[in-house]
Design brief:
The complex is a heterodimer. By secondary structure, chain A is α+β, with helices and mostly antiparallel strands. Chain A is built from 3 helices and 7 strands; from the N terminus they run H-H-E-E-E-H-E-E-E-E. In chain A, strands 1, 2, 3, 4, 5, 6 and 7 form a 7-stranded antiparallel sheet that branches. Classes of the chains: A alpha+beta, B mainly alpha.
């Protein structure tokens, strides 16, 4: 009985330690970023062609992280250009609808770079930005900075 | 053996051994233990203040082992609960701190540079989209305004007053003296024939008044949306019906194309640029749709000079001059093709 109690306590303690210290697998994080990017692009592509004309994705790009020569992050970006009949309000509505597809249990709101932007972060530090500017929307997803 | 000076009402355990006394005269078991408190003033063996239930038991007895096991189990359970609670609380604190740390994050400069670069890449498309959007909205607004203006004009009821009587009389030659039958047959019951040789009859006035000239002339004036003027001199009766139908065809043109004429004015195409075609279209419509011989117009100011005339010919001519003749369509103004990944 004592041994089993001790074992249980040990398991709990290890669990606590892992909760605080363990880092996610970079491959899984990259997959998470790609998955949410694909989801957002697909949702945008489903929009009425009378509203959203072109949805185009760029090649994934790797950028050096600020103040760190070694660590890099991967950025996934897509642009959506709207119809000439769309208004700025339409662009904002599409942006907000996209943001609403992100489960708030998984995605936490963070400070955007500007009023035209909505930004979310996952518990694995994957960052999503949705930026509406005029008749265009930029969807960008970033992996966290990692060492090579 | 004495256990202090406390008198107790404790009940000795039945299995408990009899207390041992120093008094040799005392008779073991002579007095029941529960009466001990009543006998003060002499030495009396008493039970301990708080009886230890374990005391006096055989340490190896099954009951004693059972109770010990119970206590151990309770202790372990309590420990597990305490540890579990601590773990849960710690986890919650860590997660909450993590959540707050995440919420405090800001989109980094590097990340925003990527976003800005995308907007820079498509800046030209965005600018042209905005310009085309403005052009489309302006065109649509103008189109709607012209349609509304045309509708208002068509509903006008202004009628002219005859200023100078028709020298040819009060009725056209033939079986339809006021053109009523023809007008009704083409869906123009509201149109009135006005026999007037005065200034409002532009066609008759243009015919001249020389001593060797006989004139038959008519006019459609947009000031009077549902009136056509006609006048003729004696000797021209054979040509009266053709001129009447020609003028009614002008009425039809304006009923149908008035918005296009307004659009032509909007885009800088003056009536002079399509005046001859307007006249030819009226005569050809009379020829092709209402059976007037073409030669009837050959010597007039409005000959049917269009080979293979068709309904819509005039609009096509206006369009060829750059006049918008159809409602603006957004697709025609779009900058981007529809693209999906």
């Amino acid at each position: 009985m004592r041994r089993s109690g001790a074992a249980l306590a040990l398991v709990l303690a290890v669990g606590i330690l892992l909760t605080g210290c363990a880092g996610p697998d970079p491959v899984l994080v990259r997959d998470e970023a790609q998955a949410v990017f694909d989801q957002l692009v697909a949702r945008t592509a489903e929009s009425d062609t009378a509203v959203v004309r072109a949805v185009e994705t760029a090649e994934p790009a790797e950028q050096a992280c600020t103040g760190d020569d070694e660590r890099t992050q991967t950025g996934l970006a897509a642009t959506a250009t709207l119809s000439i009949t769309a208004t700025a309000a339409d662009t904002r509505r599409i942006r907000d609808d996209l943001a609403d597809t992100l489960d708030p249990e998984t995605w936490t709101t963070i400070h955007p770079a500007g009023a035209e932007q909505v930004a979310r972060i996952s518990e694995h530090d994957v960052v999503v930005t949705l930026t509406a500017r005029g008749p265009a929307l930029v969807i960008a997803v970033f992996t966290p900075c990692t060492a090579p | 053996m004495h256990h202090g000076d406390t008198e107790s009402e404790g009940h000795p355990h039945p299995e408990r051994p009899e207390p041992v006394t120093d008094d040799p005269t005392a008779t073991a078991g002579a007095e029941p233990a529960h009466d001990a408190g009543l006998h003060t003033g002499h030495a009396q063996p008493v039970a301990p203040a708080v009886a230890d239930p374990m005391e006096g038991e055989d340490p190896g007895s099954p009951a004693r082992r059972s109770r010990r096991g119970l206590w151990i189990t309770l202790g372990v359970v309590a420990g597990v609960l305490v540890l579990g609670g601590a773990a849960a609380a710690t986890t919650w604190v860590l997660l909450d701190a993590h959540e707050r740390a995440l919420a405090a994050r800001t989109v980094s400069v590097v990340q925003q540079e990527v976003v800005d670069a995308e907007f820079t890449r498509i800046a030209d498309v965005v600018q042209r989209t905005e310009e085309q959007g403005t052009a489309y909205r302006q065109a649509l607004t103008a189109w709607n305004a012209e349609q509304e203006q045309a509708a208002t004009w068509r509903s006008g009821t202004t009628t002219p007053s005859v200023t100078e009587g028709n020298p040819g009389g009060d009725a056209m030659p033939g079986g339809d003296p006021l053109g009523r039958g023809f007008l009704d047959s083409i869906g123009a019951p509201q149109v009135q024939l006005v026999l007037d040789a005065g200034p409002d009859n532009c066609g008759y006035q243009a015919g001249g008044d020389g001593p060797y000239t006989l004139v038959v002339g008519g006019c459609f004036d947009t000031r009077f949306p549902n009136s056509v003027f006609l006048a003729w001199e004696s000797g021209t009766e054979d040509g009266v019906w053709a001129i009447f139908v020609h003028e009614v065809m002008h009425w039809y043109q304006y009923q149908t194309y008035y918005a296009a004429f307004l659009a032509a004015d909007r885009v800088g195409v003056a009536e002079d640029a399509y005046g001859a075609q307007l006249e030819a279209d009226a005569s050809c419509r009379a020829v092709y749709q209402h059976g007037i011989p073409s030669w009837r117009y050959a010597s007039t100011s409005a000959p049917c000079s269009v080979d293979d005339w068709y309904d819509g010919w005039l609009l096509d001519h206006l369009a060829s001059l750059g006049v918008p003749v159809t409602e603006p369509v957004a697709e025609d103004y779009e900058v981007n093709a529809v693209v999906r990944p």
